[in-house]
Structure formats: structure tokens, C-alpha cells
Amino acid sequence: MNETTSDLLTRARAGDPLARNQLFSRFREPLLRWAHGRLPGFARDILDTDDLVQLTFMRTLEKMDGFVPRHEGAFLAYMRMTLLNQIRDEIRRWRRRPKRGDLDETISAREASPLEQAMGRDVMERYERALTQLEPDQQEAVILRLELAFSYEEIAQQLERPTAGAARLLVSRAVARLATRMRRLREDV
Amino acid sequence: MTLDEEDRLLRLAESISDGVAFDWNSAGAAVGDDALLDQLRSLERLAAVCRRSVEERIPGVSADRVAPGAVVPPPRRWGPLTILEQIGRGGFADVFRAHDPSLDREVALKLIHSG
After folding, report:
1. By CB count within 10 A, which of A67, A118, B95, B105 is most buried?
2. Is A154 found in the same domain as A83?
3. Residue range of the domain that includes A33
4. Contact A179 B9 (CB under 8 A)
């Protein structure tokens, strides 16, 4: 039987390398896919997405002393937030680098991730802000379904819901509330 | 928002969650709030972009989704080497700490992913 994420985290923090590897194997693939769409053009040139995910994972384990995930999906959402912050740090570092003439004309395009290019930066900022205003379960439901394209069966397993139908209802209510929050944020501008 | 409008909003949110296409013109009349409808359209677009990204073939990531919760155990032995632990994972290879009995010391073993 597979160990729970919570048990693996406890062992990984105590320095157990096997637990660390098992945790990483468990979450590597969805995080890689998520990061692939979020990395700006310049970062994809200079960073290996896998290295970024791995580095963020190790740093997260070192820093998350007090974090106890309520369920599998909570850890994934936590890692997603940490990765997002890491990508923002990389963008800030890129902006502070010495400028090199005509190359800078392409900077803004290269700073945008595929997702930002498709959605627009203002929409993505509004989305991220509205997401933080939802209940943790709703945030995780939106991230798992809309961003990571998990099936309802997988979401039920990750968020400990009894059925896929219950997971679907959770996601739908979260999406409706998210849209309402985004609308309010747009009115506030 | 009336209960009826709330119910229609939930139906639209369900369609976005399911990834099902629907007629936005009639949806506008159903919710009766253009600003809210704009946000729903944004969420529908975001879900579609993310779905495409998830389905895209990424170097170093299996095309087959690994079930959440699945554990990928490292091999125990490789030739004469005894594998002690995995110490790294890259897009194209895994790195292990291993013991080489002929040298009687620890070595690093890099195994390229298959496929």
C-alpha cells in the first residue's frame, strides 16, 4: 500500500532519502507539465524545467517545517504556489541583469509565459488574486482541474471526496465563485 | 443575483469544468451580467490553454500520465553495482549513489531514461 503524502513528508524532513525520492516521483510529472506552460520564453532558454522543479521541490522540503497537508492535493497546490514564486523570482532576476542594447526590444514578449501570452497579464494577475480569496479546498479543486487537467476521479482521490460526482460539484462551485471574485476585482480597479 | 441566475451560473461553471463547448451568446442572456460572463470566458480559455499544455509532449516527461500516488522505485542493482539511493533526476537521466565492490567505494551512476 502506498504511504500517504503526510507520512512521506515526515520521513523526508527527518532526512530519509527514499521518502524524498518517493515524494518527488509522486509529484514530478504534474508539476513539470504545469511549469512548462508557466515559464517565460527567456527562462526556457536558460533553465531546464526539470531542474527548476527539482530545485523548488528540495527548497520546499527544507522550508516547510510547519506544513501538514490535509490531503494529497493540498501538497500539490502548495508546491504549485512555491514554483510560481520561484518563476517570479527568476523574472525579477532577469529584469535586474545588465542590459544589452537591441536585445531588450524583445524582452516583454520573452517575459511572458505561454499562458500569459494566451490570456493577457492583467487577466492572469486577477485570476491569481481571486484564487487566493477562495477556500483552500476550492483553490485546490480549481488548480487540479483547470490548470493540471486532472480527471474528476483523480480529484476525488486527491481531495478525499467520496465520488467523482462530488469532486465535479466542488470544482464547479469553485469556478463559479472564482468568476464572481474576478469580476469584483475588475470593478475595484 | 437571483437563485435562478445562481443556478445558471453554476451550469456554466460546470460546462467550463467539464471542458464542454457552449453558446456564449445564449449564456449571456442566461446570466444577465456581461462583466461576470467575461470572467467566465477567461476561465474557459485558461482551462483550454492548460489542457493543451498538459497534452503536449514534453521532453523527459512520459506521454502516459503517471497515476497520482504512484511510486517509481529505483532499481536495486545495475551490473556489479549496488544502488544505494537516487540523488538526482533530470529531463533525460536519473543519478544514483551506488557501491562498486571492485573499487570498494561509492560511485555515482547515471542512467539515461528509456524511450
Report:
1. A118
2. no
3. 1-117
4. yes
Q: Is the pTM of this model over 0.95?
A: no
Most A-contacting residue of B42, B45, B64, B113 (CB-CB within 10 A), to test interface: B42
**How many other CB atoms are found less than 10 A from the CB of residue B99?**
15
Please give the ipTM for the structure prediction: 0.80
Q: Which residues of A51-71 are buried (b: 16+ CB within 10 A; e: fewer)?
A: ebbbebbeebbeebeeeebeb
Show residues of chain B in contact with A29, CB under 8 Å: 61-62, 65-66
8 Å CB contact of B91 and A50? yes
List, for residues A148-165, the tens digit of each pLDDT value.
888 999 899 889 899 999
**Which residues from B are below 8 Å from A15, CB to CB?**
none
Q: Establish if B20 belongs to a structural domain.
A: yes
Span A51-77, pLDDT tens digits? 788 888 888 887 776 677 778 788 888
- Cβ distance B28 to A182 under 8 Å? no
